[in-house]
Protein: Threonylcarbamoyl-AMP synthase
Amino acid sequence: MAEIGKDIDKAKAILEKGELVAIPTETVYGLAGNALNQDAVAKIFAVKSRPSFDPLILHTSDLERIHEFVSDIPEPLEKLALAFCPGPLTLLLPKKSLVPDLVTSGLETVAVRVPDHPLTQALLASLSFPLAAPSANPFGYISPTKASHVNDQLGKKIEYILDGGDCQVGVESTIVGMEGDEVIVYRLGGLDLRSIESIVGKVEVMAHSSSDPKSPGMLKSHYAPRKPLILGDLDKLVPVYRSKGENIGVLAFRSVYPELLGQFQIQLSPSGDLTEAAKNLFAAMRALDSMDVSVILSEEVPDVGLGKAINDRLRRAAAQEIEE
Ligand code: TXA
Ligand code: MG
Structure:
């Protein structure tokens, strides 16, 4: 298994050799390698079993360094960057040629983000290159929000996991780009739409376009547990699946089901707090997935603020087939 620790110098040395390190961010853990080293980037795709058509996010320590890798920042995106970097925001910007095509899967834009986590900030500041880092999970599975999640799945394939504790946001960054003069949100995430719209006005959300995904990672089955997850009204689903004799696991927003007391049920936030629910979401999905249940029943949360990103992940988890 991988070594888990807080040694930034060790992480730096491994990355400088062209090897990979799992890093904490405020959203989810990333599987990081030198973004300017093709071999390191190729290892990321191999370790994740990720198809090469799904591009990676480039992580830098601060906004200034983004300019080394992109040729232009349109004004609305610059405003967003100034307001929310470091933070759970990823910007799609025209790339400079020094960014390898492997990172962007041949696209002319590169996704860039400044993560807000003290350990990773210190690591990035100490490095002479940016880090390419997708979420540190096998392709198609739930993103990790704890060092142990990474170790469980990728521990045999990487040397070191930089342990930054539990991720505070818990869902991936919001991905924003532009088409013509319009600001487009390609992935709902840890920065909510209201915050974005407070800076740039109304935006269009294209996160569900699965026919021609701008972000190939928008494949519907992303974030899925291995067990089937059924999304609907728990008050109806619970009795139906119990009467079928299924071993059910319940992932609820806040309700407790007394008839299931002592059984497999998790509340994302007993107090009904969406920030807390987002933080707990992936760990709860993993926990239920590893329990002795045959099916996971779940419900949507209120579709406001971070609730939109939570519902997006739940819907993707409920869709079992990969859409091409
Ligand atoms: O919060 C996060 O963003 C985490 C942490 C580790 O930073 N990273 C993350 O990476 O979620 P990943 O690789 O799991 O998701 C990145 C998404 C993918 O859906 C990919 O398709 C999209 O970003 N993406 C990357 N570059 C793109 C580009 N040039 N154009 C469109 N989509 C892009
Ligand atoms: Mg991912």
